[in-house]
Amino acid sequence: MAYNGEERQVTKVSPHQARILIADDESLIRIHLRELLAKLGYDVVAEAASGAIAVELVRKTRPDVVLMDIKMPDSDGLDAARQIVHERLAPVVLLTAFTDDELVSAARTAGVSGYIVKPIRETELSPVIEIALARFTELQELRAQVEELEEALETRKLVERAKGVLMETHGLSEGEAFHRMRKTSMDTRKSMKEVAEAIILSHKIQTGAE
Q1: pTM
Q2: What is the full per-residue pLDDT of the chain (210 aa) written as tens digits?
Q3: Is residue 8 part of a domain?
C-alpha cells in the first residue's frame, strides 16, 4: 500500500457523535474551541500544542475530525495535515488567520477537507465539520471500491494463468480446468485466488520456472 497507517473502517458519523482533536499552540484558542465544540455536542478527545504531537495523538486516539492550526512549532499544521491525510487517519480542517490564494492552494495540495478563518465563530464550526466528515466518508468508500476492483482484477488474472497451467500440464479444456479449480476451492474452503496461487506456485516448483 502507499501509506503506513492502519486502514480506517468506512463508518458514517453523525455530527453530534463526532470525536474531535484540537491542535493549536495557543492555549486560549484551544479552550475557546473546546467550549464551542462542547456546546455544539461534539466530543473533544485530545488536544495538541504542536504538529508533531498532533500526529502522534491522532494515531493514538483516532478522532473523526482534526482541527489544526496552520502555524505551530516543531511541525506546522500543513506538514502535520499531509501526514494525517497520507495515512488516511482522519479529515483535517485548518485553522488560520490568513485567506490568501497561496494558503488555499497549499491546503488543497495537503489534502485538507476545509479551513476556518480566525477568530473562530460558533456558526462556522458545525458546517465545516459536517462537510469534512461527509467528504472523508465518500473518499474512503471510493477507495474501498477501487481496492475491491483491483483485487477482482488481480484474482481474474491469477485464475486465467492457473487455468493455463492446468490445461497445459493435464490436457484439460478451459471449462474443465475452471471446474477443477472451483471444486478445489469449495472442497478446501479456499478462495479462487488462493487456489490459483497454489497451482501457479506448484508449477513453478516442479518446472523451475520463474
Answers
A1: 0.68
A2: 333 444 444 444 544 579 999 999 999 999 999 999 999 999 999 999 999 999 999 999 999 999 999 888 766 788 899 999 999 999 999 988 776 677 777 777 788 888 888 888 888 899 999 999 988 888 888 888 888 999 999 999 999 999 999 999 999 999 999 999 999 999 999 999 999 999 999 988 888 765
A3: no
Please tell me whether residues 110 and 26 are part of one structural domain.
yes
Are residue 26 and residue 110 in the same domain, yes or no? yes
Instruction: Give the domain range for residue 23.
Output: 15-120
> Using alpha carbons only, what angle is made at residue 176 by residues 187 and 157, rounded to the nearest 5 degrees?
80
* Among 133, 113, 147, 124, residue whose Cα is nearest residue 18: 133
Grid cell listed for 85: 491525510
Q: Give the number of residues written for the chain.
A: 210
